[in-house]
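Researcher: I'd like a structural prediction for the single chain below. Treat it as a standalone chain; there are no partners to consider.
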Amino acid sequence: MKRIITEHTIRSGKIPEKLRLAVASDLHSGPYEDLLDLFYGCDALLLPGDLVDRHRRDNRLAEQFLREVPEKVPVFFSLGNHEIKYRHSEDFLKKAMQSKVTLLRDRDTLFRGIRIGGLSSCRKGSPDLDFLDRFEKKNGFRLLMCHQPEVYLKYVSGRDIDFTVCGHAHGGQMEFFGRGLYAPGQGLFPKVTHGVHDHGKMMVSRGMTNGAKPRFPRFNNPCEVIVLKLEPTKEGTTG
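Model: Treating it as a single chain, here is the predicted structure.
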């Protein structure tokens, strides 16, 4: 499985020290052993949703991930649509809470001077707007995990949140001339499938795997792991 590593640097006066954060979205209970050296070489690992795959008979690799990876590196996990719709969701989330993973289910935590939050996907209606209201009032650099970019555009964009990482779109599945063909939640010819958007405040991962039941195969669209490089600056700018 071909995966690319994309680095993105964020500079802000709100960031107290240099940090390297790996972002592994849409693992879908797929293999990850080839990336352990990368994960363990970072200060923390962010999982913005779909660690499981609701279409698989079992999610053994996702459960193995919960047991293995947080023993070596701090892991912060927020919920995507597959966690919400998975028929054994509560059992899986119980295992997550019993592991060393920090489960951010519409809540936030402080990690080495930055505030990390997780906005959960939901079956229908709006996400937890009360959590977003509280989160954007917290002090310090606020880094949000929001699985679905279309949810970000509707409910998060314009808020006083410094940076958000998303997944879900799988890079548009098939990419032609820099544009994706299809993304869940956005349909055909989606506008937000990967890269940095919203004036540098949001970044979408192409995802680590394709999932067990893709509507379209991948074409010209490698899987991706993002490495965020957070750096302090006196100017207080983000870029």
